[in-house]
Amino acid sequence: MKRLLLTSLTLLALSLTACGNPPSGEAPADAAFPSHPITIVVTFPPGGGTDLLARRIGASLQESLGQPVIVENRPGASGNIGARIVAESPPDGYTLLMVNSSFAINPGVYRNLGFSPKQDFSAVINVAFVPSVFVVPAASPLRNLDDALAAAAPGAPLPFASCGNGTPQHLAGEMLARATGAVLQHVPYKGCGPALTDVAAGQVGMGVVTASSAAPLIAAGKLRALAVTSPARSPLLPTVPTVAEQGVSGYALDQWHGLLTPAATPPAVVDKLNAAVAKIVRRPDMQASLREQGFTPASSTPREFQQMIAADIDRYTALTEAIGLRAD
C-alpha cells in the first residue's frame, strides 16, 4: 500500500512537471515567434518620414521573419491615438508602434494621454535619427548662428518658423533661446513644408525644420543653413556646423525614430525583433538608402533605447513646463 502511494505521488509530480515545462527537444513558445502577421502602427499619416521608414523596415522584416508585416496608420492627437491602441494591445510582439521624438514630448504637453509612456511600452530598437537645421532666406544678412543670436535682442525678437507647436523643431528653437538668452519668437506651422515655403520667401526671418526637408532648398540656393541641431554634423549637410560647434556647449537635439511594443512582451520576443531589425538597418544598401533620405541610421539595444526615451521624456517635460506649453 505504501509503495502504491509513493508511486502515485511520483507520477503526479512528473505530470505537473510536464505541464510546466516543454518536453525535451520541444522549443518554447517564444521560439515559434512569429507565427502570424505583425502590425506596425504608425502615429502619423501616410507619406511622412516616420511612415516611409516604417514601410521600408516592415518590407524587409517581412522577408527576414517569413510573416506578413502590415503598416497601419493611426494618426491623431500628435500620435497619442495610435500609441493608446498599441498600449492596450496584447503584449505578444505582434503589434508594434513606430514613433519619433514626439512620443517623448507629448507627456509634457498633454495632461491626459490615456497611457503611460514610461510604463506601458517596452522599447525594441531605435532605427534612425533625423537632425533639424536652422535656416534663413538666401538673401538674409544673417551669415551664421552668431549673427542670428546677435539679432535676437529684447525689443526686437527674431521670429522662427517651426513644423508646429510641440514638435522637436519647436523645442530646438526654445532650447537655443534658453541656452543663449536670445529672444526668439515662435511662429508655428502645420508641417515643415509650409514653414520652409515662408522662410524661403522671406516671410519669416529664420526657420527650424528637418534637415531632410530643407536640403533640396539649401542645395538650390534658396535657403542658407546656419547650424544643425544634432551632436555631430549631418551626412546630408556635411559643411554645416552644429549648434554646439558654434559655442553653445552641450546643445543637442536629434529626432529619433524607433519601434516599441506593449509592456510585458516576453524579453525573448523583444530580443528577436531587435536582432532582426538591427540586421536590416546595418545592411549597406539600407544604410545608403536611409542616408540619402536624410536619416542617420542607428541600431540600439532595447535597454539603450528605453533609457534614451525616459531621459528625453524628463528633459522635454521640464522644457515644456518652463515655456508653458500645454495642449489641453
Structure write-up:
The protein is an alpha/beta fold and 328 residues long. Helix content is 41%, strand content 20%. It is built from 11 helices and 10 strands. Strands 1, 2, 3, 4, 5, 6, 7, 8, 9 and 10 form a 10-stranded mixed β-sheet that branches. Helix 6 (168-180) links the parallel strand 5 and strand 6. Helix 2 (49-65) crosses helix 9. The longest helix is centred in the C-terminal third of the chain and has 22 residues, at 302-323. The chain is globular and about 65 Å long. The N and C termini lie far apart (74 Å). The model is unreliable at 1-29 (pLDDT under 50).
Outline the fold blueprint.
Layout lengths: L1 H19 L17 E5 L6 H17 L3 E5 L6 H8 L7 E6 L1 H8 L11 E17 L7 H7 L6 E5 L5 H13 L3 E5 L3 H9 L5 E5 H9 L3 E6 L25 E9 L4 H15 L2 H9 L3 E2 L4 H22 L5
Parallel strand pairs: 1-2, 1-3, 5-6, 5-7
Antiparallel strand pairs: 3-9, 4-7, 4-8, 4-9, 4-10
Helix pairs in contact: 2-9, 4-11
Mean pLDDT across every amino acid position? 90
Class derived from helix and strand content: alpha/beta
What string gives the helices and strands in order? HEHEHEHEHEHEHEHEEHHEH
Shape: globular
Low-confidence blocks of residues:
1-29
Distance between the termini: 74 Å
In terms of DSSP E residues, the strand content is 15-25%
- Give the strand tally: 10
Largest sheet, strands/sense/barrel: 10 strands, mixed
- Number of helix segments? 11
What percent of residues adopt helix (DSSP H or I)?
40-55%
